[in-house]
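[09:14] KT: can someone run the structure on this one? pasting the chain below
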Amino acid sequence: MRTEFRCKMEPLFSGYYANMLNNRLSLRHFFLRNAAIFTELNLRNKRVLDVGAGFGMKLVCLSLMGIQEGVGIERDSDMMNGFLDLVSLFERLNIKPVKGDIHDHDFGLTAFDAIILENAISHIGDTEALLERLNRILSPTGVLYISDDNNNLFPLSFVSRWKSRKEAESGTEDMLRAARSREVDRTPFRDLRAEMIHEKFPQVDQQTLNMLVKGTRGMTSNQVKEAVGEYVAHGERPRKSAFPYRNPVTGEFAEKGFDPLNLARVLEKSGFKCRILRPPDFYLKSANPGLPKHQQVAASFLLWAMKYAPDRAVPFMYPSFSIVATRL
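[09:31] RB: done, structure tokens below
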């Protein structure tokens, strides 16, 4: 089955999950990691929504473990196609792939017992609107799980995130060669905006084009065209975006950082009781064996140190964070 699906989704799926496809220990780690989440959230016989579900691998794992129903929402077309292919291999599982944005679908009030966002919240622009939406569709006894690799309280996160943002905006050889990327991710945001502007406004000269490409950082395609149209018609320069690293084609943000303590406070103001967990790898007592050796060593040391750390120190000790929020 693994080979069958790998053939269907070459090269994108196998690029994203290269570690698991080539390393059985990494595949085992993936399942055990999701088993830890399943146990922590008490998901047996529960209705689960996975926001930013990607290819649906997490929902397949959780469904095999015993959730009642899984709904995965994903806005990327390539990933959604892979999700549909994956679900076709597990027809007996109650999994529903949903294409689009969470704000575009009416799931009904209190539709889910658990909502999971894993490495999703950092790519969504309006966090306040997102949390308000999740609050409406979560059941009164439901649980919200937010986990992300962009922890602002971990000092080294700033370095890696700055590098990834610069790569996304300007491009590097490593980025352009990346087999795990979608085609739209292999093109720098700067070049995508330049193509949009040149196609819509071919009369713009190169110097002006460069100025407009820089001035429209952080805008979606429609916003770019609107801003350039204003400049061409009235000479008004584009206004600077609040967050300048955004894919103009997909609208996705390039890994915004989060302070988990502040995020927990925001959730508590919305009527939740929050716990900041140690990362799932802590309970597995091992880092992902698919990581490069130097990253395995560093992660293993941090996980070991975490055993002796008080709870209040945990958010500062690891690149990722995990928050469980339950209604008061």
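[09:33] KT: thanks! The chain has a mean pLDDT of 87.
[09:34] RB: yep, looked fine to me
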